[in-house]
Each structure stands twice: as C-alpha cells, then as structure tokens.
Amino acid sequence: MIAPNIILVDDEKAVRDSTAQSLMLAGYEVETFSSAAEALHKITLEFEGVIISDIRMPEMDGLEFLQRVLKIDRDLPVILISGHADVATAVAAIRKGGYDLLEKPFSSTQLVEVVKRAGEKRRLTLENRALKEALENQTRPGPRIIGQTPSIMNLRKMITRIANVNADVLVMGETGTGKELVARSIHEQSLRRDHNYVAINCAAIPASLLDSELFGHEAGAFTGAQGKRIGKFEHANGGTLFLDEIEGMPLLTQAPLLRVLQERKIERLGSNKLIPLDIRVIAATKVDLKGAAERAEFRQDLYYRLNVVTLEIPPLRARREDIPLLFQHFVLIAAARCETEVPPLNSQALHVLMGHDWPGNIRELRNIAERYVLLGEAYNFDLAVLMNAGDKLEGLSLTEQVACFEKTLLVQALNHHQGNTRAVMEALDLPRKTLTDKLKKYGLDREQFRE
Fold first, then answer.
1. Structure pTM?
2. Which residues are CB-neighbours of 115 under 8 A, at least 6 positions away?
3. Residues in domain Response regulatory (predicted)?
4. Residue 210 in this model has a pLDDT that exceeds 60
C-alpha cells in the first residue's frame, strides 16, 4: 500500500520538526503547519491522507480544528496530540470524532503504528466511496458519461458536486464531445430531475423567431402571432434549460437573455406581466467565448454571467484510453437496437480505433460503431476498410444506402441461419418470392452460407 500523505499541525516548532522527521523516516510525505487555520485550506473531500494535530494551540485549538475538519469530511481520520492529556480530554476528543489520542511524549513506533492504522482506514473509506459512486452511475436513470481517464473521472465528480448547486453552468467542448450529454447528466442528478429538461439550439433557429422561442408571446404580439405561446424559459420553469451553441445567439437576443439570468423573470413578447422563474440554465459552446467577447462577437457581461461554473469536455483524441470502452458500448447499443449478434472486435480493429484522430469526437465514434454493426460482416469486419467505405456511403443517394443496408441484413440473417431459407424468411418476415428476388438482386447464393 502507498503511504498516505500527512498534514501535521503543531505550534511548537521543535515538536513539529521531530514528529515530521519520524514520519518521513517511515516513508510518509508530511506537510507541516504552525496553525490550524493554515491547515484548513489544504483539506478537501478528496484528501487521501491522515491529519495529526496538537490540542493545545493558540487561536484555534485541536478540538475546534477537529470539528472544522469533520464538517469538510466526517470520515477523515484526525489524530490528536496532547502534552496535558487526561481521561476527560481523551473522552472529549473521541466523542467529537477524533480517530485517536497520543500523549506526549510518545515513541516513534507508537506514532507510526497509529498513523498506519488511520491511513488504512482512509484508504478503505475512499475505495468504498469510489465503488458507491460507480454503482450509482450504473443504476442512476438518464445518460451516463463513460470513461476511466482522469479528465473524465474529474468531470463526473464535478457534475455530481454541482448538480444541486443553484448556479448556471457553461459547458465547453469541440463538436461531438457530448455537451448535451453533460447537461442531461447534471439535470438527472439534480433535485430538478422531476421537472422539464428543455433544449434549444441557438444557432439553428432564425434570429427573427428566437425571441419568441425563448420568451414566448401573447396573441397579436407581432404579425402572425395568432395565439399565446409558452416559451422555452417558461416551459422549463422548475427544471433545466439547455442553450446549445450559445455562440450563435444574435447580439440583440443576448441583452434580454442577460436580464432574465440576472432577475429570474421573463416577459412574453407583447406582455407587461413579469413571470418569476425557478430555473437552471446550462449553456454550451464549441468556441472560446472569452475571445469572442473580446472581439465584440459576444456580449462580455453575458459571458461573465454564464461563466459561474465551467465544465470543459476533453476531445476524444485526448482520452484515447477510453476509445475501446466507448466503442464497445456503442456497438452493444447498436446490436440491441438491430436485434443482431454483437460483432467481434479484433486487435487490428482496436489498432485502427486508437490510431484515428476522431475530428468528430464521440459522435463520429458512435457512427462508426453503428456502421460496424450494420455493415461489418459485408467487409469482413475490417474497420479500416469500413471507415473508408462509410465515407463513400455518405455520397450515395438514399435509395443506394437503403439497398446497402438491406443487403447487409440479408447477409447477417443467412450467416446466422446457415443458409436456411425458411428460417431467414421467418426472421426477416419476408414471403418466399420476395426473399428469392432479393437474393437474386444482390447476387447472394444461400449455398455459400451453409456449413
């Protein structure tokens, strides 16, 4: 087991130095502080080590320090040291949540033994938390963010941490990295999950209609407004509004959006009545909004209003270790949807996956996985050939792509049923004549599929 880090707090320099030296000789990394207030800034839920503190200290004593630490993490092991220890002090320390109490003078052996046990307790606590979080991620309803690279694990932790914080969120990432997946994950983990999640692409709606889409309108508010319309903000009241491609929002619409974010109230177009909102706004962008604001392409005040909490999604090329896991996940989904067997994934296919730069990120990977399920057998599961074929497919007409898909399904069924015509007819729900015609059309001979 790797030795945990130690935070050591003692106002007496000689005691602090000698205690630190004993711990370092035992293989521990020790960070020392002369006051409890200084040490508090270093303590977080993720701290992997043990805390040692003297009880008798000026300003903040060890018992108060203990209480402040346990408010950060009630499971952190805090070892208290006292030169004036008595039964009452020991009982008070343990009752307040202290892990153990050492009385000065204590031996190095005694110190190291207590620290070793406390470190083991901390390790088990963090492992249990990680397992619990993994289990919750598997059983939690809604979208899941898959991956084991540090950047994705940190992203999941941040989502969990901010889910119930009433702050707007800015999600940044390249096209196809999964910005809406992150937004949905925040919503599903929050107390707003039972209310509406509403998404709108700010760049996909004409500027003339965006105000009406967002804020709604009253009948007669403008030409063509024949009835009252509830806007996206009002529809998302109590829940979450996701503004995708916020960089595409016209500057004229950004001003009323800023006012809504500040006041949490809207007015429908053509109305003077203010409607209060209880809403969380998550905005997403694929560009550098700060740079856009500096170039006067985006309102600077709106950028700073949205930039309360920022989540950055790494591109797929920066998390290559996750590619096989993600690909297999998408393959399983595609196979279940098509009601077909899960195709094999050989080492050559993995090599192709890991060597590609994935400019389209997760979206591109998902498309390749679906293509692998639908067309892989026709290309002998050669992923490199299949990816190039996919580029050619995109240039085909709808009729040609449907024919390619139809042929693939026939090949899969013939393979699965070893050329048994009756079984293929039942599996694909086709009359005999239709099946015969299609086999002829695609040049397929059922005999070649018999074992």
1. 0.60
2. 6, 23, 26, 28, 50, 52, 79
3. 5-119
4. yes
